[in-house]
Amino acid sequence: MCSEFTASLQIKGRSTQLPKRCLDISLAALGGLFLLPVCAILGILIKLEDGGPVFYAQMRAGKGGLPFRSWKFRSMVVNADQIYGAVQAAENDHRVTRIGRLMRATAMDEIPQLWNIFKGDMSFVGPRALRPEEFEIRAGRRVALSDIEGYAERHSIVPGLTGLAQVYAERDIPARSKFRFDRLYLRRRGFWFDLKLIAFSVWITLRGKWEKRGSKL
């Protein structure tokens, strides 16, 4: 059963790979140029708030589980990972800075990932790129995301800036539930489906609803 599922993904992947890649390169290049003034303003505001670095780089798991360096505008306090560990963000997270709250609500902290998309480390649409050491806290204990069912399957394709789970899954549901959305995307993915998810993501961004608990649409 697993081999049949993998074979079907490979066949579908060959038919959608080129249009998807062309879309990624075009949108990443145009978006990067269009958003340059916004990037300059955000850089100044981040620096003015606490004097720390403007950008935040971390290793993420890409296609096949291979690591790549992901770039973001820094939205948390300096050295947050070293102090608190690689735990997922929660509601009213005290690690998030003031400008960070605005950026996370509108996804502006992820603008530098347009470079990752242009390079091919990421796509506009796909499962969220996770840190290899990332964990969640459930019932008072730490659970590694890599130990949760569905983790490996989601690495059969390039991770995305947005995706089915990012748009439709509620913010604080367990990773196991989010991975179900990722597995559903693997079965339904296609060029027009990606365009639909991108359009929904733009709508959420314009309304500043990315950090909302509950439905974002």
Can you offer a commentary on this structure?
The structure is a single chain. By secondary structure, the protein is an alpha+beta fold. The protein has one domain. Helices cover about 50% and strands about 15% of the residues. It is built from 8 helices and 6 strands. A two-stranded antiparallel sheet has the order 1-2. The chain has a two-stranded parallel ribbon with strand order 3-6. A hairpin with a 5-residue loop joins strand 1 and strand 2. Helix 1 crosses helix 5. The longest helix has about 35 residues. The chain is globular and about 45 Å long. The N terminus is likely disordered.
Summarize the structure.
The chain is of the alpha+beta class. Helix content is 48%, strand content 13%. It has one domain.
Report the principal-axis shape: globular
Distance between the termini: 35 Å
Q: Average the pLDDT over all residues and give the rounded result.
A: 88
Mind summarizing the main beta sheet? 2 strands, antiparallel
Overall tally of structural domains: 1
Percent strand equals: 5-15%
Calculate Rg over CA atoms: 17 Å
Which spans have pLDDT < 50 for at least 5 consecutive residues?
A: 1-9
Count of helical regions: 8
Please give the share of residues in helix. Answer: 40-55%
Structural class: alpha+beta
Extended strand count = 6
The H-and-E topology, N to C, reads as HHEEHHHEEEEHHH
The largest sheet has its strands arranged as 1-2
